[in-house]
Amino acid sequence: MKPLLELKSNGPFTIGVDVGGTKTAVGVVNSQMNLAGKRENPTKKASVDAVVEGIVDTVYEVLNESNMALSSVVGIGIGIPGRVDIKEGTVLSPVSLKWQSRIPLKCILEKIFNVPIVVDNDVRTAAYGEKYRGAGVGCDNFVYITIGTGVAAAIVINGKLYCGASGGAGELGHTSIDRHGSSCSCGNRGCVESIIAGPAVEVKAKRAIKEGIKTRINTMALDDLQKVTAEMVFEAARTGDHLAINIIEQFIRNTGLVLTNIVNFLDPELIIIGGGIGQATDLFLKPLEDMVRTNTLFPVLQKVMIVPALLGVDAGIIGAGVLAHDMGI
Ligand SMILES: [Zn+2]
């Protein structure tokens, strides 16, 4: 944590909150959009009240540790999974939190904290954090994509987050690219998520092992098919395992197709890859960038760069804190 005097000299301050399916992370964000003190607690998913209580407790823990009073905070930004209407501050059905209806989170938290609250989707707040302190610094037109157990995206246009007409922009994972493909949790078929996310990588490895293909992945999983993970596939590829390399090549082809579509549609300067699989970018970033540049409509003009996200969980905290600073502009 930064020394108190340094922290105090960089006000005004906001609080950034990142509510994840497993953890709620909270930090103080100063006027230079730097993180000054943070804390993480498990997200209590039992009910809306439990999630709200977790946010409140963690905010006060961070304030206490930073020797700050709530009165020195000018706003609080919240990043949360699900469809968020940023104008109303309502959150609709974040599956990972098991909420069944539209929750007026901004209204609930403003009553508790009595400071301005802004709520946005967690992928968008993470993208905003990367814009201010991570891989997107200096870039006003980019797409941020998380690839992990799911796939989602956030779009920054002219320096601002693009939310869509009803807060639903960025549901890249549920864009279908194969109507005969496998069924997805959303009810559609051939969704991007069901083709390139971690579980899809895992399924390909399990299927091949079942068919008797020799691979180190099997040894890594102690000959237990249930223990096979996407991380093992990426790890095995680093050691030259043929099956793993083959699966990664398929991943690159499919992800390249998706990113090429994005580049043709939005012409971003940059695509930032984050999320669990995003951490294995050393294995696929360069071939992915080559494929995308080659396959877009005007390859000779194409300079899009594909880069890894830099901030991890801090991206969501910083981005939410910056959104809260934006309210004061
Ligand atoms: Zn889907």
Query: So what's the overall shape?
Result: globular
What about the largest sheet?
Answer: 5 strands, mixed
Indicate the percent of residues in helices.
Answer: 25-40%
CATH class of the largest domain: Alpha Beta
Going by CATH, the architecture of the largest domain would be: 2-Layer Sandwich
> How many beta strands in the DSSP annotation?
13
Query: Please, how many domains?
Result: 2
Task: Describe it.
This protein folds into two domains: 13-131 and 313-326, ATPase, nucleotide binding domain (Nucleotidyltransferase, domain 5), CATH 3.30.420.40; 139-308, Nucleotidyltransferase, domain 5. The chain has eleven helices and 13 strands. It has helices at 4-8, 48-65, 105-113, 122-133, 192-196, 198-210, 216-220, 230-238, 242-266, 285-295, 314-326, and strands at 13-19, 23-29, 35-42, 73-80, 83-85, 90-92, 102-103, 117-121, 142-147, 151-157, 160-162, 270-274, 305-308. The strands form three sheets. A five-stranded mixed β-sheet has the order 3-2-1-4-8. The protein has a five-stranded mixed β-sheet with strand order 11-10-9-12-13, sandwiched between helices. A three-stranded antiparallel β-sheet has the order 5-6-7. α8 crosses α9 and α9 crosses α10. The longest helix has 25 residues, at 242-266. The relative contact order is 0.16. Zinc ion is lined by residues 174, 184, 186, 188, 191, 193.
